[in-house]
Amino acid sequence: MGSVDSTAPEATETIDVDRSDPGYRRWLKEAVRKVQADANRSADTHLLRFPLPEEWKIDLYLKDESTHPTGSLKHRLARSLFLYGLCNGWIRPDRPVIEASSGSTAVSEAYFANLIGVPFIAVMPRTTSREKCRLIEFHGGRCHFVDDPRTMYEASAALAAETGGHYMDQFTYAERATDWRGNNNIAESIYEQLRLERYPEPAWVVATAGTGGTSATIARYVHYMQYDTRVCVADPENSCFFDGWVHDDPDATSDRGSRIEGIGRPRMEPSFMPTAIDRMMKVPDAASVAAVRALERVIGRKAGGSTGTGLWSALRIVAEMVAAGRTGSVVTLLCDPGDRYLDKYYSDSWLADQGLDITPYTLALDGFLATGRWSE
User: Fold this and answer.
1) Does pTM top 0.85 for this prediction?
2) Class of domain 41-68+181-371
3) First to last CA, the chain
4) What is the mean pLDDT of the chain?
5) Architecture in CATH for domain 73-174
6) Strand 58-64 relative to strand 46-50: parallel, antiparallel, unpaired?
7) Angstrom distances, CA of residue 69 to CA of 39, 43, 58, 79, 136
8) Which end of the chain, N or C, is less packed with Cβ atoms under 10 Å?
């Protein structure tokens, strides 16, 4: 996996940057140009169809975010966060960018840090998949591990203070760094790609939440454009988002970290907008794993656990529509590729170690896809 820095780097003297200095302004303009050029080079991500029986008259799609240059939905977020930090004057030449992340955001941020030539340090749980750590290092970043995921925030802020760097803080800034009114955000892209489909305005969009930025962007866009689409957020075990939403409790917490990397949080994050969404589902972790394995059987693609969480909820919504005799389309997200998790969600030994039995959930999925009836 390569060397991993599990201790704080040496502190550096903090020297303020003169933001009117011509040299700094040249650096800033070039950094912003490079980040924007990355977007200009990138084609839109695909909208894949998940095959359902024609007689149901329901279409299920997965927005395949794994085709971004860094392989995940978080590429969009990282680009937005870097532009936000640069234009606010927070990211400076030769100073590290630090992020608290369970992996995919850190991979994408390491890519953009390398693109503009600044150091990057990812503060992450020690249980993060080895492949994500390798990818962070591949893009020139360093990994700083913590044993308790709840301490990532404080550890990141401390590293920023010690190094004179910038703590990106995706959990605070994700919802405000993204232009939710349009500008080729993920919501606008989904609707444009559905334009020629038989149900161009989806009945439901299903997202998962790590920062909450994606669900906030989609929900805000739906309201702004006056669509009738409903937005559902699927939440894994060991996450407080569902309880905080159900009980309208901004102080909800969880005492354990999520086993589904990239989603679920131990606290209600500032970027999670519970008032903007219509529904939440709590999804057992074993169901998430069963769903990604079913996805591979159906369309031949491996995906990460967060994709399974969303797909499970999307299929539950499809089952409700079938039972009610409703037609329409449902969209969920393929967040990242499964090759990052071969030692987890595709490993039977990992499932055994975690005490997860996916058999009943696999039977429920297979039965539904064969008969149109959901039973658990």
Assistant:
1) yes
2) alpha beta
3) 40
4) 93
5) 3-Layer(aba) Sandwich (3.40)
6) antiparallel
7) 10, 10, 31, 11, 13
8) N
